[in-house]
Amino acid sequence: MSPDNLGIRKIVFYSEEILSENGQAPAVTAVRATAAAVVANPWLGGKPSDDLSPEVMKLAPVLARKLTNVLAAELGGVDAIEAFGKAAIVGTAGEIEHGAALIHTPFFGNLVREFFEGESIICFADDRGDAGSNLVVPLWHKNAAATRTHYQTISTRVGDAPLPGEIVVVLGASTGPRPHSRIGDRLTDPAVKADTIGELIS
Amino acid sequence: MSIRKIVTFTEDVLIEGGREVSPAARVAVVAAIVKNPWAGQGFVEDLTEGIDANASDLGALLAPRVLKALGSPAEAYGKAAIVGLNGEIEHGSGLIHTLAFGNHFRDAANATTLLPAVEKRGPAGVVFDIPLKHITDATIRSHHQSIEVRINDAPHPDEIVIALAAAAQGRPQQRLADFSTESK
């Protein structure tokens, strides 16, 4: 590990601007993006009982700062970001808990919310896998998580990461809703219970 | 020209071989996912019309975007055409192997060499590597490199992914003997 940059080997940015979906331009052109940091797993060789917090406090805030900086710069500022999500892919020499440690504590999540000026809990995905593993990152609205128009995902992948001793930490964001979102919301939903559906599922 | 999606991708390498890379080595890719201009037409003998209608526009769209994503002058570059399963590789080649396409990138990057390329047919989510070489001297070995790309839902069978790649430097930790110093 390089002491100077906390073992961060790569920073990868990926974005998709959807100009057309099912042959028609969306009413709102949204950009979905991920920023990913490939970092050395600081807990290799440890025991399942080890306290992970010293490394979390050192590393997670730096990842939160770097990844929010990348997304804000590339997507046109914090105000342009409407939805967010996070993910971790742990290399095969690590525990899933190591990825969870980097994304599921206030040292990452609270700072992401603060930097993106959001209030929602941040939805997530985590997995363990080989280099080149694909992971779908869920996103939802940064201030109103139940906003159905903003339920969306983006795939993330780094070709040569994670190495067995690495973790890929991912932050996702979107500047708008799904293209052609039209499945209603909680305010317009009818009451749905098994007996209102009736014969279809009886 | 019918574009479904524009993908921008950058990779910054901060450590290679266990040593820091400073400044970070950046490679950028911008890809347009377009409808195959010859989709559903069977074997089209003369591709000129579809090339004229699309190749220059694609080059003009992608060249400034990839240089903006790179954020510094390009020293190496390359291109890609990934054809969906219903198309011919010749369709992708038609769009990228014309001066009308490549000159936009060459002019914007002050480049002179031919753009190295990958042409391939595959399903949505196919992984492809774009080769890059130096923009003014393709024998400069330090700048031979490639960048791996994957777009989860492209190309559809009737689409083509057209991409440009640019690097701001050679390989991180490059240390091979120069081409000109090798005994023949």
UniProtKB/TrEMBL annotation, chain A:
This is Amino acid synthesis family protein. It holds the Pfam family AA_synth. It comes from Arthrobacter terricola. It comes from the Bacteria.
UniProtKB/TrEMBL annotation, chain B:
It comes from Arthrobacter terricola. It comes from the Bacteria. SUPFAM superfamilies: BB2672-like. This is Amino acid synthesis family protein.
